[in-house]
Amino acid sequence: MSSELIRRELPPTDAIGTSAPSTRSPLARFALVCLLISWVPFAVLGFSDADVNRGVAAIVFALAASGPSLSAFVMWRINRRDRIRSRASASAVWPIAAVALGAAPSVLTALASHAADPTSISAHAASVVAGVGGPLGAAAYTLISGPLSEEFGWRGYLQPRLRLRLGHMATVLIIGAGWGLWHLPLFFLNGTGQQTMGLVSVQGLLFFVSLFPLSYTFLFVSESLRGGVWAAILLHASWNLADALMPPSGNLGALLQTTLMFVAAAGVAWRWRQQSTSPTRGGKMPTADSSVPLKAQRYRLVAIATKHHWRGFGYQWMVLLLAPFGFVYAVVSFAIGSALALVGGGLFVLATTVPAARAWGAVHRSLQRLMLIESIPAPPPRKPRRVHRGYLRRGLGDAPGWRVYGYLVVSFFLSVVGGAISIALFVVGLGLFTHWYWSRFLPAQQAHDGSWHVGVQYAPGRFIDTPPLQLAAAAAGLLVLVVIWPAIVHATCRMHASLGRTCLGPSGSEQRVLAVEASRWATVENSDRRLRRLERDLHDGPQAQLVTVALKLGDAVDRLERGDDPATVAGLLKSTRTVAQDTLVGVRGLARGIHPPALDFGLDAAVCSLAAGLQLHSEVRIDLPDRPGPAIESIAYYSIAELAANAVKHAKATRLSIVVGQDTDGLSIRVEDDGRGGAAFDDSTSTGSGGLRGLAGRLAGVDGTISVMSPAGGPTRVQIYIPNGGRA
User: Fold this and answer.
1) Cα(470)–Cα(285) distance, rounded to whole angstroms?
2) Are residues 496 and 566 in the same domain?
3) pLDDT averaged over the chain?
4) How confident is the model at residue 3 (pLDDT cuts 50, 70, 90)?
5) Contact 244, 138 (CB under 8 A)
6) Residue 504 CB burial class (10 angstroms; 0-12, 13-18, ≥19)
7) Closest CA to 255 of 432, 101, 473, 425
8) Would the pLDDT of 13 be above 50?
9) Number of folded domains in the chain?
10) Does residue 570 lie within any of the structural domains?
């Protein structure tokens, strides 16, 4: 058992309590160095119109193409502590996954494109290998041209810093866009594969699009499978080699290859999600299910298999059927009221229909709570009056009713546009995915050349009636169903939920009034509960002991009056004195519960005294430049005491950390323990959360906030913030 008081300024922390260093300056320097190393030589080669495959131009091009890796090494030389992450875990999983994911799109595309003549694949591969000097030359070329020259920069330096700062999807988008921008000059250099594609072409567009799913696959093998930069190099090399030996055939081949890249990215995203939701430390990480609000959900590539997705799709259907009626109500009532306003009756129409629109708000709130798990609080109730002047003023000034009017109008257009796009994507995706089956029932159609075809016509004279095209249609349909359609559904539902929170719930001032009323009642209930507990403690403790003292004193008086042995009376008085002393100790304990004497010397002394009395290892760090007011000190002390009691009694913790800091706006408290976790505000699903709800109520009385992070198995971290209530 130990405790320590450290008076020093606490470093700023992020949401998980770790320092969050800024990465803007190193990344900006990396981008500048990369552009100087790469684009300047590219510009020289482009203006000189040199062939990058011959002579000195080939050497200059190779150095310029190594710009990302060279930039990473330059950044390492600038800051030696900022090492490049090139380690890989000793596993056989990431090499196999890197090779398979890198080569699969090109191999499958080649097999589908040359299904009628498989020998052409081997012939082309043999010619490519012979052209670069044999198998070793092909392997060396595909390893150097791209993997080694780029991946130390993209995956070794840039990716881990962006991921720690921005997360997975933002990292993929930024690296994909930067990767494409870096490749842009290659479309204007003689002898490059990008110049053969052409910048303004289908293949050129698909090349830029494919960099995004490929970046996600790189992130998976290097971060999730712990392959590091070496996994990225191996994946890039296998992609280059497969693409060189089995290139896509035409625009359809490039489209199929890009589609397969998206399918592979969706597959690894699903696998990554499965890994992140696997049981850890005796419990499961929170997953996207039907009990989590929509605003707390994150879009997933394979969202089609979740309940939230289908609930959102059902919500789009229901609101698409309901929105026209609400739109008609808002427009017609407003038009009639405005038209009759000149004769006086229109004001009464609006004063009646505007508050009545609250019923529409209640319907939409219930619908969002049922389908989107979005709980929107109702606005304050309206108190109608019978007086005509008051009726008009209160009816026309009903702000929640006018907000519902706006919601009915805006949600109509959002429902029509979002629902139409979502339903169309679902139908198109399902139709393309199953085209191979139902196309046989279509009537034969004649093309311009006189040939007959059975299938959907996707261009003049072109039909989906061959196995490669059927496979491409199925892949495109799968892409729509798995990636595009869920994203549209999720985005539309998020917009509906955001619009509902803005228009159907209370405004900022109304929320403030409701919060003040709730905190007032919480304060009253808490005071009443504390008084009842004090009364019970007095009744069960000091009161019963004082009754015992009175009875013993009465017995002693009777014995003295009867002339009993003085020694017997003295023994009785000694026992009475012992009971009186115990009563005094109990009264002092109750007094300390009302106001601890240690608080007279400041919050730091009181907290250290509390920690010293705990039966576990405790660490206290306090930095209070100014002493808070007495009320703030009392609330902070009792909050810490409640959390410490929970850690000892319920969490069975062995270590406790208490950190108290202060800024210009208020007091911040962080209490951590290494117990079994599971603390929550809902007592029915918590482990040792007895006082959290009451603690939240007491803090709400002074506009304080509390946040709890306590996964099953621990540890538990509780953050409390109490605004300033005055200085001592």
Assistant:
1) 41
2) no
3) 76
4) very low
5) yes
6) buried
7) 473
8) no
9) 4
10) yes
634 with 580, same domain: the answer is: no
Q: Which two tokens stand for residue 615?
A: 């039966």
Tell me how far the alpha carbon of residue 534 is from its chain's centroid.
Answer: 44
Residue at a domain's end among 503, 522, 554: 503
pLDDT 10s digits, 323-378? 889 888 888 888 888 878 766 677 788 888 888 888 888 888 888 888 888 788 88
> For residues 529-565, b (16+ Cβ closer than 10 Å) or e, as one string?
eeeeeeeeeeeebbeebbebbeebeeebeebeeeeee
Amino acid in the structure at residue 167: G
What local confidence, expressed as pLDDT, does residue 280 receive?
36
CB 46 within 8 A of CB 189: yes
Residue that terminates a domain, selected from 503, 537, 566: 503
Contact by Cβ (8 Å): 67, 148: no
What is the rounded average pLDDT of the residues 612-631?
81
User: Is the same domain home to 180 and 269?
Assistant: yes
Q: Does 112 lie in the same domain as 199?
A: yes
Range of the domain at 453: 307-503
Asked if 162 contacts 170 with a C-beta cutoff of 8 angstroms, the reply is yes
How many other C-beta atoms can be found within 10 angstroms of the C-beta atom of residue 263?
A: 19
Tokens of 588: 């002092």
**pLDDT value for 293:** 47
In 3D, which of 481, 469, 364 has the Cα closest to residue 424? 481
539 Cα distance to chain centroid: 51
% pLDDT > 70, the chain: 80
CB atoms within 10 A of CB 663: 10
Above 60 in pLDDT, residue 253? yes
Residues 470 and 606 in one domain: no
Residue 243: enclosing H or E segment and its boundaries? helix 228-245
Q: ∠ at Cα 558 (557, 559), nearest 5°? A: 90
Residue 279's contacts (CB-CB under 8 Å, 6 or more residues apart) are: none
Whether residue 213 is contained in a domain is answered as yes
- CA 281/CA 259 separation, integer angstroms: 38
Where is 69: in which H helix or E strand? helix 67-78
Cα–Cα distance for residue pair 230/84, rounded to 1 Å: 12
pTM exceeds 0.70 for this model: no
492/579 same-domain check = no
Would you state the pLDDT for residue 304?
64
- Both tokens of 294, joined, read 């929509």
Q: In angstroms, rounded to a whole number, what is the distance separating the alpha carbons of residues 364 and 381?
A: 17
Number of H helices, E strands in the chain: 27, 10
pLDDT at 252: 82
pLDDT at 572: 77
Q: Are 537 and 590 in contact (CB under 8 A)?
A: yes
Question: What pLDDT does 284 receive?
Answer: 35
Distance, CA of 407 to CA of 495 (rounded, Å): 12
Side-chain half-sphere CA neighbours of 571 within 13 A: 4
DSSP 49: T
On whether residue 285 sits in a domain, the answer given is no
Burial label for 625, CB within 10 Å (0-12, 13-18, 19+), is: exposed
Minimum mean pLDDT among 279-283, 383-387, 392-396, 587-591: which range?
279-283
Reference 646, options 719, 718, 722, 703; nearest CA is 718
Whether residue 79 is predicted with pLDDT greater than 80 in this model: the reply is no
- Tell me: pLDDT of 718 over 60: yes
Q: How many CB atoms lie within 10 A of CB 590?
A: 13
Distance CA 11, CA 721 (A): 17
Q: Which residues pair with 12 in a beta bridge?
A: none
Quote the pLDDT of residue 80: 59
